[in-house]
Request: fold
Amino acid sequence: MAPTLETLDKEILIVLDTFSSLVRAARITLDDQDISQKPQDKRSAGELVGAVAEHRGSQLQQNTHNMREGLKQMQQEMSASLQMAWI
Reply:
């Protein structure tokens, strides 16, 4: 079964929700850190959030590309079927 726009919308919402949760968790972690800790610790948490977001973003981009290709193929097949029906 070819992917639909509804499936794509759900994927996007899942990724956005995951990203929002990661950002909230990173903020809580940064807020809870002891002030005496080194600044690198804060960068590490931020870098982690950025790396996870980048990874999830690339997954979303690949899923979006695959869904669009699937929809294009389905559209071409339907068009060909309709043309054959008219003949």
